[in-house]
Write a structure and sequence with these properties.
The protein has 320 residues and is an alpha+beta fold. It has 10 helices and 10 strands. It has 2 domains: 8-155; 172-319, no CATH class. The chain has a 6-stranded antiparallel beta sheet. A two-stranded antiparallel ribbon has the order 7-8. The chain has a two-stranded antiparallel ribbon with strand order 9-10.
């Protein structure tokens, strides 16, 4: 049965839009969003159950969200924001590079990148005008809808309900993704593992951060477990603190830049700060909120972040 705009979760979003003052955005975009969902054969509608509360859409028989749509009032209270989050990992390997490029192009077009807070499939494309919202939906519909018309379900990544995220992993990949012992996993050169292991962080420390940050990078929202590392706010060599409040779960490249004080976090606002030299490649995250644990007691220690941020500011002056 096709999805209707009268679905209870969509009606619930209307109530939130009235409260947030974003009724015009939702009213203009809800039907095009539902039409897109129906075109690619989504059969299930849900709610994120979090703030901002979004409408999530799933393909028939799958448990992971294909995409999400929501509207909210921005913190400055001056304008409303609409957003669509569509995880490029949900499309087939053949289509993914081109689709990822499309998502980036749309973010540049609207000038609004909404970073993933762990409640949606991935970082989102934001828009503050109805015209931009319609342009985003049309572009997604043209790419994904046309691919579905050509390829059917082969347009989407294979689904395995026994694996996280619905993607199958080879046994060698699984062992490397989950291996956290000092000795190398089967089939991996001990010398190679000796270089990777310290970056993963002490075993229990990393596991605690994985749980606290729901298995996602606090800056990028990346959920590829093999790429995630336990970063110390206090330099590891200075003071080996293994409390969650002294750590942040980061993607490997971001971890390196964090250690080099090319990326930091403003402790007053918990927003990400990126050095000028990196803005071309990492500018999408500059000024964006850090993805924080659900438990406020597990937030990074503001006092320790202040020391890191002070060094980032000092080096920013030196580097220019």
């Amino acid at each position: 049965m096709p999805i209707s705009t009268n679905h209870r979760f969509i009606e619930g979003a209307r109530a939130i839009a009235r409260y947030a003052g974003t009724e015009a955005l939702l009213s203009a975009l809800q039907q095009p969003v539902v039409d897109f969902a129906n075109r690619v054969r989504c059969t299930s509608v849900g709610s994120s159950g979090s703030t901002p509360r979004g409408i999530t859409f799933r393909l028939d028989g799958r448990k992971e969200d294909l995409f999400a749509f929501w509207v909210e009032r921005l913190a400055d209270k001056k304008r409303g924001l609409g957003a669509i989050s569509f995880d490029p990992a949900r499309v087939s390997d053949e289509l993914r590079p081109e689709f990822t490029k499309l998502l980036r192009d749309l973010q540049r077009m609207t000038g609004e990148t909404v970073l993933n807070n762990g409640n949606y499939p991935s970082e989102a494309i934001g828009f503050v005008t109805v015209s931009d919202g319609l342009a985003v939906i049309r572009a997604l519909d043209q790419f994904v809808g046309d691919a579905f018309d050509r390829l059917g379900t082969r347009a989407f990544a294979p689904y395995d309900p026994t694996q996280r995220g619905g993607r199958k992993k080879k046994s060698s990949e699984t062992s490397l993704l989950t291996w956290d012992a000092d000795s190398a996993p089967p089939g991996v050169d001990p010398k190679v593992w000796a270089q990777i292991r310290p970056r993963r962080g002490q075993q229990k420390f990393r596991q605690r951060l994985m749980r606290a940050y729901d298995g996602r990078c606090a800056v990028t929202g990346c959920s590829v477990e093999a790429a995630l590392e336990a970063a110390h706010v206090t330099p590891y060599s200075h003071d080996a603190v293994y409390e969650v409040t002294d750590g942040v779960l980061l993607r490997a490249d971001v971890h390196t830049l964090f250690d080099l004080h090319l990326i930091s976090v403003d402790p007053a606002t918990y927003t990400v700060r990126v050095a000028l030299s990196l803005l071309a490649d990492y500018g999408a995250w500059n000024g964006q909120p850090l993805r924080l644990p659900a438990d406020g007691a597990q937030y990074p220690c503001a006092q320790r972040l202040e020391a890191h941020y002070a060094e980032w500011r000092r080096l920013a002056v030196t580097r220019g």
